[in-house]
Design brief:
CATH superfamily of the largest domain: Medium-chain alcohol dehydrogenases, catalytic domain
Shape: globular
Structural class: alpha/beta
Strand content: 25-35%
Helix content: 25-40%
Largest sheet: 7 strands, mixed
Order of helices and strands: EEEHEEEEEHHEHEHEHEHEEHEHE
Number of helices: 9
CATH architecture of the largest domain: Alpha-Beta Complex
Radius of gyration: 20 Å
Length: 321
């Protein structure tokens, strides 16, 4: 760590509350212990989980302030701890810092376990990689839990969102036929461009009719990434023996019809999942759609932007070109 400063800029809260509690701090760079790496962050992803943590609604460890937010990032490894064998200083990686005891990714540096990082795929730039870690693992975990595979008839709710647009591309690589339900005309255009077999605006009046026409014998899988009555009204189209999958955070949680299995999968990274995610990404052109980019000091504005309509991911540009 000879070339690493002892202090860093970070966006943190000194108490839980509204977005105005998120302010710029100068804090010590976290120390690297066995099995950990220090990453100089270029891009940090912004997610609803960050806002929940800021409000004190998502507390997963002993609370200490100031508390640095941020669950995901991409950057370059600048130091490694004892026992780290899979990575080296200089590696370009993306990483989860979600539920991380040494602080989050709204900072110039973060220390994470080597088990939550992956090499940056050749086809992605740093901007896209910064929005991938939670969306990618959440999408893949739920697709695997649902048994999505070759010729699976998949109904995908929330297809133009952060997790959804990644799930769409992964599902197509896994061989699924995807009926994508997106948000707005721009969302429909995005998911068509990303390979959806059919796409419909979730606010339109003919969602059920078009879904039934797409899968007259019923869907094998529904991946539900948003909640609501319209979502629930379509789940009767999942066939007997089929599966409905959803991640933590979808409210209200979907209800499964009789004879349909309900599975809930989280988005916590591990080396196996990260390797599988990279293998799927490397199969061809892949896009992490970045809706808006903010500076590190604009983290509060970035979180507020999540309340508006947007596609894909919102990120912070922490450093780099």
């Amino acid at each position: 760590m000879q070339n690493t400063p002892q202090q860093m800029k970070a966006m943190a809260v000194d108490e839980f509350g509204h977005a105005d509690k998120l302010t710029l701090h100068t804090l010590p760079v976290p120390t690297v212990d066995t099995g950990e790496v220090l990453i100089r962050i270029e891009i940090a992803g912004v997610g609803i989980w960050d806002a929940l943590e800021r409000e004190g609604e998502l507390v997963y460890n002993e609370v200490h302030f100031p508390r640095v937010l941020g669950g995901e990032c991409a950057g370059t490894i600048v130091a490694i701890g004892d026992g780290v064998e899979r990575f080296a200083v200089g590696d370009r990686v993306y990483a989860q810092s979600f539920m991380n005891n040494k602080g989050g990714s709204y900072a110039e540096y973060v220390v994470v376990s080597e088990k939550t990082i992956a090499p940056m795929p050749d086809g992605l730039d740093m901007l896209m990689a910064g929005g991938l870690p939670i969306a990618g693992i959440t999408a893949l975990s739920n697709l695997q839990a649902s048994g999505t595979g070759n010729k699976t008839k998949l109904m995908l709710w929330g297809a133009s969102g952060g997790v959804g647009h990644v799930a769409l591309q992964l599902a197509k690589r896994m061989g699924a036929n995807v009926f994508a339900i997106a948000s707005g005309a721009d969302g429909v255009a995005l998911v068509k461009q990303l390979g959806a077999d059919e796409a419909v605006d979730g606010h339109s009046s003919d969602v059920v009719q078009r879904a039934r026409a797409f899968a007259p014998d019923g869907f094998d899988v529904a991946l539900v990434l948003v909640g609501g009555d319209t979502v629930q009204s379509t789940l009767s189209l999942v066939r007997q023996g089929g599966t409905i999958a959803f991640p933590n955070g979808v409210m209200p949680e979907p209800l499964a019809p009789d004879g349909v299995e309900l599975k809930k999968a989280n988005g916590f990274a591990n080396p196996t999942l990260l390797d599988q995610l990279n293998q799927l990404i490397d199969m061809g052109e892949f896009q992490v759609h970045i809706a808006q980019t903010f500076g590190l000091e604009e983290a509060a504005q970035a979180q507020s932007a999540m309340k508006q309509h947007y596609l894909g991911k919102i990120v912070l540009r922490v450093s780099g070109e």
